[in-house]
Every structure is written in C-alpha cells, then in structure tokens.
Amino acid sequence: MEKTTPSSSGDEETMNILDTAIYRLGNTLSVLFIVTALISFYEVVMRYAFDAPTIWVHETASFIGGALFIIGGIYAYATNKHVRVVLVYDAVSPRARLYLNIVHHVFGLAFAIMLAYAAYLVMQESWFAPWGDLRLETSGSVLNAPYPALLKGLLFAALCVLVLQMALHLLQDINRLRMTKDV
C-alpha cells in the first residue's frame, strides 16, 4: 500500500507503509501542541489569578514539546519536507535528482546509524544503574518525573526509525533508478 504526497519540489514522491504510518501518527500527535498550550494557560491562570502555581505544568509541557520535536524529525523525513539544497536539487534533471537522493540516503544512513548508537549509549545510562538495575533518570525537581529518561528513550527509538526510513528510501530510489535505465 503506497501513497503519494507532493514533495517540496512539486514532484510526486511515493510514501512507503512506514512513512504513511509516521504521517498519520504525526498528524494525530499534533493535537498535543494544543494540550501543551492549554496546560500552560492553566498554569498562568493558577499562578497569577489564584496565587496557586503548579509543580507539574512546566516540566510536563517541556516533555511534551520535546517529544513532539523528536517525532517531528521523522515526520519531516516521511513527508519529504526535510532540509535540502534546492538551489542545486531543483536545477537538475529528475534522473540526476535520483543520484542526489541516493548519495543523500547513503551519507544520511551512515550518520543516522552513528547517532542511533550514541543515543543508545545515552539512553542506557539514563535507564539503568551502573550495577544493571532499572533506574530511570529523573528531573531532580519537586515533581521528579522520569521525563529525561523517557525523552532519551524516545530519541533512540526515533533514530532507529530514521535508520529504517533511510534504508527504505535508499532502496526505493535505487529501484527507481533501475526502472529509468530499463526505459
């Protein structure tokens, strides 16, 4: 099941099943931006109107925002809205774009693998005590929520998904290049 979505350059790009799932998840999770605004508004009202500040809003809003921005990276890649040097990309033929995409995917894949490995090391340290027991890193505030550990775990998971996305995009573009040679 593949879906198409217009890319920033106006060409039609195929979305694989993973990209489609990320697109749908991202659109669903975008509601959390409204939730963040609402709980922040609640904090302002409680603090300044009732002189009763909360201990949970700031950290929770920061956690939600951070989580959404992490997911935003794979969402941007899934929808083909990532950063690209369009001055060069838009000036070349569709076949040359395929070659540029393949180079992008190869270097991006290598970089994403290294980032995922680094994120794994950081996550492992924030999730486990040196002696191996599960111990989620907390914020150290009055709320002391495990948000830092959860964000590091989400970052690792998102980078693993990015590695998979890049591998799938690389394979798709190699197949497109093969199809253009046959024609």
From TrEMBL:
Pfam entry (one): DctQ
CC per GO annotation: plasma membrane
Protein name as catalogued: TRAP transporter small permease protein
Transmembrane stretches, start-end: 21-41, 61-78, 98-123, 149-171
Family as reported in the entry's similarity comment: Belongs to the TRAP transporter small permease family.
This protein's record includes keyword Metal-binding: no
Keywords: Cell inner membrane, Cell membrane, Membrane, Transmembrane, Transmembrane helix, Transport
Subunit comment: The complex comprises the extracytoplasmic solute receptor protein and the two transmembrane proteins.
Protein's membrane topology: Multi-pass membrane protein
Domain (Tripartite ATP-independent periplasmic transporters DctQ component) ranges: 37-166
Keyword Amino-acid biosynthesis recorded: no
Entry's Gene Ontology molecular function annotations: transmembrane transporter activity
InterPro entries: DctQ, TRAP_DctQ
Function field: Part of the tripartite ATP-independent periplasmic (TRAP) transport system.
Organism name: Enterovibrio coralii
Subcellular location(s) of the protein: Cell inner membrane
Superkingdom of the source species: Bacteria
